Amino acid sequence: MNAAPPPELSGVRLSDAQKLDWLRLIRSESIGPQTFRALINRYNGAAAALDALPQLAAQRGKPIRVTTREEAEREMDTLRRIGARLVALGEPDYPASLRAIHAPPPVIAMRGEAAALGRPMVAFVGSRNASAAGLAFTERLVRDLAAAGFVIVSGLARGIDARAHRSSVGTGTIAVLAGGLDKIYPSEHAGLADEITERGALLSEMPAGWEPRGRDFPRRNRLVSGLALGVVVVEAAHRSGSLITARFANEQGREIFAVPGSPLDPRAAGPNELLRQGATLCVKSQDILSVLEPMVAGGPSAGPLFREEERGEPAEPLWDELDALASGSTPQTQPGHEFDEPAGGAPRDFPAVAAPQSPARAGNAREKIEALLGPSPVPVDDLVRAAGVGVSDVQIALLELEMDGLLERHGGNLVSLTPR
Q1: What pLDDT score was predicted for residue 344?
Q2: Torsion sign over Cα 172, 177, 181, 185
Q3: Under CATH, to which class is 96-293 assigned?
Q4: Alpha carbon 27 to chain centroid distance?
Q5: Cβ contacts of residue 387 below 8 Å, gap of 6+?
Q6: CB 202: neighbour CB atoms within 10 A?
């Protein structure tokens, strides 16, 4: 039987059979967004890719557990039971802004009003242990932006996220979950999640029934920033999850707004650092509106569904991609770990943003990057091209240099060595 080709234009709806095949493929072991697209391109459809997986795994010397049709049907049934549905990349309800990011999820689970996803969006992120002033200022900004026609995006976490959602439930807000749509986290926000669906939507790329783990939060964060024209950081400790969202926003070409705070308050360290790196100062809603309103007419353009450069082996695998099988390791986390401001310094699961790599490979990448850097800021894209290594290798090398105090980040995705 010939496999149906993947849709090539936005607005094409998958048949039920095609959508089930897409779900089976993306839910199979070690298949992430980039591997999914590589397989779709190589085999001209999900059904043929599923048939080819066992032989492909055998060639790599490690079996792959392929999601069964019954398992995929159970997930679809669970979503229907809670009033949710799956939307595939390229279908009319798939957000154009999300389609434009690097490695967009092939399918997202959605519960609520899809119309909200067609309006211009602004993301809010910040501390879970927010100050009273931070919460009040968040509410003020959100209400002004909502009155101007913007939908608010956040991650349904405690603190700034929750205040942003609650301040916009009547006008439209989008919550992106790190777990399945039937596993609201934190659990005390289940009522808020129901309110959100009346005028907005809940989104997740994770399977129904999935309990969020530490490494799932940065994965969620890339969708929070990817949906929006800009990201507002209200309060965030140094090296917090909110700053990871800001970093994704920078890589995705989104605007970054930072609310300044007292240097004596650790919760202001993140926004103040972003301002030093070139983020837009935000002390009133007009600071955001003056930047984003001119962008609303055009908005972020949606790239092609299956880019030519993504054919064959994925260049920058996520931690769950097929290429990660060769390393024999995956990030280790505990159920329920959140990706925010852990006691004792760096986030628990930061390396999970990139693919696992051997110490020798990591060392070589760092040496190359450090040799290419100097006191003058250079674009990260130029480093990738000059170093001749993968984007994930470059990002890990930059992270190591930054944590050692050897790297400075500047606006416009520029980096340089710290003056000595």
Answers
A1: 32
A2: negative
A3: alpha beta
A4: 18
A5: 365, 368, 369, 372, 393, 394
A6: 23
CATH code of the region 356-420: 1.10.10.10
Domain locations in the chain?
A: 14-61, 96-293, 356-420
Q: In whole angstroms, what is the distance from residue 58 CA to residue 27 CA? A: 19
Whether the Cβ atoms of residue 158 and residue 186 lie closer than 8 Å to each other:
yes
Contact predicate 273/309, CB 8 Å: no
Which among 176, 177, 175, 180 is positioned nearest to 211, based on CA atoms? 180
* Secondary structure element (H or E) that encloses residue 52, with its range: helix 46-60
Tokens representing residue 232 in the block: 């507002």
pTM confidence score: 0.72
Same fold for the pair 96-293 and 356-420? no
SS3 382: helix
Considering only CA atoms, which of 348, 100, 50 is closest in space to residue 214? 348
Instruction: Report which residue type is found at 161.
Output: D
Q: Which residues of 78-93 are buried (b: 16+ CB within 10 A; e: fewer)?
A: bbeeeebbbbbbbbee
Which ranges of the chain have pLDDT less than 50? Answer: 1-10, 301-319, 323-362
Pair of tokens at residue 138 = 């968040």
